[in-house]
Amino acid sequence: MSSQTAQRFTWLAFLFLLPTLLGLLIFRLVPIVGAFVTSFTRWQIFDKPRWIGLDNYINILTSPVAAKVFINTAWFTMIYVPGVIVLALFLAVLLNNSLKISAFFRGAFFLPYITSTVAVTLVWRWIFSTKFGILNNLLIGLGYSDPPAWLADPIWSLPAVAIVSVWKDSGFFMLLLLAGLQTIDPGVYEAARMDGAKRLRQFFDITMPLLSRSLFFVLILALVRSTQTFEITYALTGGGPNGASTTLAYFVYENAFVHFQMGYASALAYLLCFAVGLVTLANFYVRKRWTHE
């Protein structure tokens, strides 16, 4: 192929890529840069932006309300990440077989992930209902005379949101771990059985080490996902009661589209990105200590 022909193909490839590149520039890069600049301003959406430097960041880091939101987000992450990984791993191991019915259950467990969040939260609001909910009636049937008001109690509202999030997302992470399980050579398990290893020993000595890279990938996705929870919080508790279930993503929405404090909301969003970046970098730093290459 001559250099002239190669150059022509290069321009043709660039021409096909141009719509995508323009889309990324207009709808991704420009808003990112715009939000960063806005984070240094006081902008009440209907007024002109006014440059205030680092005041938004200082106000966030010294605000008791913001501190409570950061703590809520940390608590949510500590419930959600282990919960969704353990449940997804259990389902993946359970369905890692060639039975025809397993295909049905894989689809059934994945279905909540692609189901409308509004539909999901409507069902769970009924489950969590204080007087008529199936969960509290079950607890009463088991002898617990004073079950909690899940969505109205400041202690239980955040765990309730985390439970629904784990239930909804576990099917997606199950498929990722199932793909990892299916890359493990069955001959390894056969050799372990011949050596007398029981199922539990096989799980911890074979499955976990060989699945560690998939688990690391799922861990990173779950950590990022835990900081982005908005729809379930919005539809289930509205951040209440008294901000008890408000996490960072919901707090960004509240400041931007309820109070119209665009500069403050932009600063919150960048602090959220910074926190997620730090956690992700820390995980990549320790990855080689627990992943099997």
Provide tags for this entry.
293 residues, 13 helices, MetI-like fold, 2 domains, mainly alpha, globular
Would you spell out the secondary-structure blueprint of this structure?
Layout: H1 3-38, E1 41-42, E2 50-51, H2 55-62, H3 64-94, H4 100-114, H5 117-127, H6 134-141, H7 157-181, H8 186-194, H9 199-210, H10 212-226, H11 231-236, H12 248-257, H13 262-290
Antiparallel strand pairs: 1-2
Helix pairs in contact: 3-7, 3-10, 4-7, 7-10, 10-13, 12-13
CATH class of the largest domain: Mainly Alpha
The topology string of helices and strands comes to HEEHHHHHHHHHHHH
Helix content: over 70%
- Name the structural class: mainly alpha
CATH superfamily of the largest domain: MetI-like
Strand content: under 5%
Q: Which regions contain 5 or more consecutive residues with pLDDT less than 50?
A: none
Number of E strands: 2
Rounded to the nearest angstrom, the radius of gyration is: 24 Å
Give the neighbour order of strands across the main sheet. 1-2
What distance separates the N and C termini? 40 Å
What is the correct CATH architecture of the largest domain? Orthogonal Bundle
Number of helices: 13
How many domains, as an integer? 2
CATH topology of the largest domain: MetI-like fold
> What does the main sheet amount to?
2 strands, antiparallel
Outline type: globular
The whole-number mean of residue pLDDT values reads 89
Quick overview of this protein structure:
By secondary structure, the protein is mostly helical.
Would you mind describing this structure in some detail?
There is one protein chain. The longest helix has 36 residues, at 3-38. Helix 4 (100-114) packs across helix 7 (157-181), helix 7 (157-181) runs antiparallel to helix 10 and helix 10 (212-226) runs antiparallel to helix 13. The protein starts with a helix and ends with a helix. It is an all-alpha fold and 293 residues long. It is 73% helix and 1% strand.
